[in-house]
Amino acid sequence: MSMNELDVDKSFLKKSTLFNILGTVLKICGPLLTIMLARIFGAGEFGIFVSTQGLLLTIARASTLGLDIGLRWYLPQNKLHGRVAYNGIMESFWISVAVSLFITVVIIVGSFTPLISDELPYYAISLVFYSGMYVLSSSSEGNRKPWISIFINDFVIAVMAPLVSIVLHYLDIPHALPFGLLFGQVIGFTLHAKAVRKQFKTMPVIPQGRASKELVMYSIPLGLTVFVGNLLQRSTLWMVLFFLGAEASGVYALMMTLANGLQTIRNGFNPIITPVVSGMDESRLKTDLKPVYSYCVSMATMIQVIIGFFIVLFPEEIMSIAGKSYVVQPMALGILLFFQLVVTFFGMVNTVIDGIGKSVVNLKASVIQLLTSVVAGFILIPQFGLLGAALSMLIYGIVSSVYCNVYLLKRSLQPYSSKLWIDIVWMVLLLALYILINAQVVTLTMVGKIAVYVCVLLLLGAQFLFYKRKF
Question: Where are its TM segments located (predicted)?
């Protein structure tokens, strides 16, 4: 029985990985347009935009109360417990919309007082679409169709929002940045709504009952985890804004945007792992967790390494696309890159913890991360600037990874396969290249950089074909 179930999981993982790889090509479009935003609007305005958008994302995530991510775990349980397949979706949707609508009204009313800026209400209009879209997106992921979210979130929205902002800017329409953001969210919300309706044709718009206690009790710690995680992601940027000013925050925001291209790879695998682990009983966790998790980590790391080598080899060229004012402490970009590699290879175990229903553990890990980030940021950013900001993120990434892995070891769960040694080798090679280039031990011409990158692509391509046959 276990082998049959594992074969089904393998088929799902391979299909999802293929969509993730194809989606990587699409994901490049969003960051490229974001770079154009930085160039067009300038470092100061761009830095404020990214900081405000980060605040908006944090509020939107909080408004879902964790029910959106809880659906990734809850929907696979519907079949096991004999519930209708769509149980929990619309219940979560209307709760999230109601909370976000209330917050939107508070922001709009507050804008008539000195407490809230006049610009924030233009951003707040997007809140309802953000929170509703989170629930609908996670519904597809919980139903084992993560490629829908990959296409809509990482391509359609990522492209439409900055593209519309650029068009509005050249048409001299005011508030181009928040209106572009709103347009992207409306398009994404509409597409997700149609996708969910297609999957659950008999699902009523108005649910007959309330969200189940099981879903709520699982989701609330998860929601707090995500809220703290969003604070965590934005806290470093806000500290850069506080200590170094708007222009420095604009430069750092662009670096984070580029490095977060690696994060989207990891995020693409999160909704793949959680539903699979959620469907495993204790016996399967002992036998099937290792191959499932190791395959996902290997594929995610491989894709990230491809992007990572490009960033390490061409950091100044990438940053200069946005303008010469953005070429500041490019070494910080490399550190952000390694932060993403660490939290993917060692930190993706948090999806396993969510899958086994222990969302409180991830909440504790996130609180520890936030405290570490704030302390490290206050010490390092004033002294080392953007380099210190990047180091503070790397430190809290390592701390969180250690905490989560120790927890799994205490539960006698070891998700790492010995086959992952090759991925560690790639990470070490990337780190070595980064050190050699930035210490100016090795100086490569443009032709040399291109030659190195082509060799990396060929070797990784051969690794992918070999590993695909072995899994």
Answer: 21-42, 48-71, 92-114, 120-136, 148-171, 177-195, 215-232, 238-259, 292-314, 326-349, 361-381, 387-408, 420-444, 450-467
